[in-house]
Amino acid sequence: MYKYIRKSKAKRSFEYAEKLIACQILTPFPIAYIENSNFLGLTTSYYISKHVNYDFDFRDLIHKPLFPNRKEILQQFAAFTFKLHENNINFLDHSPGNTLIIEKEEKQYDFYLIDLNRMHFEVMDFNDRMHNFRRLWLSRTMVKYMSKTYSKLYNKTYDETYTLMLKHSRAFQKKVDSKKLRRSGRKMRFKSE
Fold first, then answer.
1. How far is CA 6 from CA 3, 12, 14, 27, 86, in A?
2. Taking the complete model, does pTM exceed 0.85, yes or no?
3. 56-177: CATH topology
């Protein structure tokens, strides 16, 4: 399928990295991609990019509520995501492990996207934009900080932004949790309070 119908993950990653860089979105610099195939089609593919020495990734902000400058990082990350959306980039794998963060100077951060093979380039309405935050596994506090920044940039009220971002985040978390419960064979129990 990947040889004859669809581009390989490696080729998509390379091309998407070039598009991101053209939009001044940071990602490890793309060097090359390699595709190996036989008469049946693609067998293996590899994407090669420049190594980035990063300080931490987005997961640290989830697991360490007292992470230094957490509020400022989340606000800057919301502005970074807004820039993605303004450039019509719907990063489908916008999840905690796919953003590398570098501290540049006092309370200023650069964000690098990795694992680039799943993106759509399309105009996104307000619902689409808030839906794009869902995989980040945000707490209420994180949603609060990010909503304040995003609402100002997008000219929506804080309440509208907070409510919709939280709604999509919670729906995604519930879906993942219920899948884990189904796999474990346990029944979901709800508190009566």
1. 6, 9, 14, 23, 27
2. yes
3. Transferase(Phosphotransferase); domain 1 (1.10.510)
